Batch of 3 targets.
Target 1
Amino acid sequence: MRPDSDYGVSKAFGEILARYYCARWGMESICLRIGSVRDDDDPTTDPRFLRTWLSHRDLVHLVECCLRANVSYGVYYAISNNKGAFWDLSNARAELGYDPQDDASRRSPR
């Protein structure tokens, strides 16, 4: 881990604490590193969102995957299938069955 802010440190602490509870008491936990979820579901208002957007549809799908998964502990990025994304979804795809359908680059501005 290499957090770059106080916020990142707090997120890392939460993930490590969840891992500890899993190992110590068997408490299952899935940690999601949620990208950019917009009230209006529009990723076109900021260039960063084109890489970090998580559509409402893909968010619902990912939560459903988490609830069905046979995973004791895991950390997963939560974004849509965005062209040029800089976060890797391969473990969410393999371990959770996550199959995001939306891509910010294919959305037209509203």
Target 2
Amino acid sequence: MNLRRRTCVAALSAAALLGVAGPARADNRIGEAVLVQKDVLRIAGASTSPINVGDGVVRNETVRTGTDSAARLVMIDSTNLSLGANASLTLDRTVFNDETSYRDIAIRLGTGAFRFVTGHSEKTAYKINTPLATIGVRGTILDIRSRRGETMVVLQEGASRVCTLTFQCLELTQPGDTAIITATGQGRSAIRKTSNPSWSFAATCTSTSGLCTVTDLASSAPPQDFTGILCGR
């Protein structure tokens, strides 16, 4: 029996002996909402419910903001995700490395404007996807706008590799470097780079107090039950 298997068995046995229980989806909690302005919803299957400050966010659910609304989510590893109005994202996949970092985290951005600030996980753990692009990060602050037929990625800090779905890639290495991916029809897209972006998330930050503040959740979050996640559930 390998070490990972022994660890999982031991953890599950201890949980059983101690009678560990809780909400059905407690082991899926991967962060929380720290700022909510107006209408912010969680969508899980056919179920829709409002998100309030302090509510947990979980895997495989979509977070959506309404008109004149905004939200900021902070993951367990202190990744900060800010959403502008009429934006949606889905937390596709998370595999924990330990209580404050991920081995793998995938975030799918639907439509809208976002700011992404990496947390304490290894940078290779992060995978950001839009309908037109895949985005890799290296200690990064990114502004991302996803709308029908176009994705724009603006580097604010760090570095990023942006690729089309057909693996045409650009490296963003200087603040202001911007990748613009546009759909060209028949499942194809084009990518270009500029250092003079026509948009950034800055105006959205200014319009909503605290939206672009960075919260270090990992240093203050209470201990979580990661048994299921570490064991592959």
Target 3
Amino acid sequence: MPDIRAALREAAERLSATSDTARLDAELLMAHALGVTRTDVLLGRVEGEVPAPFEALLQRRLNHEPVAYILGTQPFYGLDLVVSPAVLIPRGDSETVIEAARIARDGRPPARILDLGTGSGALLIAALSLWPEAEGIGLERSDSAREVATRNANANGLAARARIIAGDWTRPGWTEALGRFDLILANPPYVETDADLAPSVRAHEPAEALFAGPDGLDDYRLLIPAMPGLLAPGGTALVEIGAAQGDAVSALARDAGLAAKVHFDLAGRPRCVEMA
């Protein structure tokens, strides 16, 4: 049986046709199988035989299952979040929404925050970590996703400040009893129905959290007209967008009587629209 170092080389080679981050994936899976950190693996702090679970974990990745689902966790904005196939995997690009919110509310800390389609709770929990006096609501229609978001809120010490509730913006009257908010965040479905997605996304992440009609704008058409009724005076809303949707989403915001500003991610792509 190969040692851990040799097994990592072999695993990276096997994953090279499946993943653009083959070596990283192999290291993360090995650390998980060993019950140690990736740093321990990188620094050679573990020796001995390759653990028995490693091959099964590797096979899952070879079948395009995302590493985050295999590990059951995903980092986001300095937080360690639980994830499952019930929720989208939080991505670094979505941190643009939080950074844009931080800048927009500089000197004006929000008291009430709403996260529409909260999923894992990533945006809500990150925002509450920035503003320790704020309270927030995560609206989510999926029972399974609400369970994940609740676990993440509790694990991050936010049980008293984060309330995860059922709600569906495709149903009439969904805004009733919510009240008004100083900050509204949303990462709604925005992928075109026939978009060419990687197998790890299309086959494994929840379709109801990805797809939004032929042009990817169906959910914005429902959400954005509701924003003026949900925003408190002087409030700010930020929605994540696809790279080609800045103009269309900004136009929807203006049609709703809101000013719109596009923010860009670290790669220089349009990533979210700020509305006020």
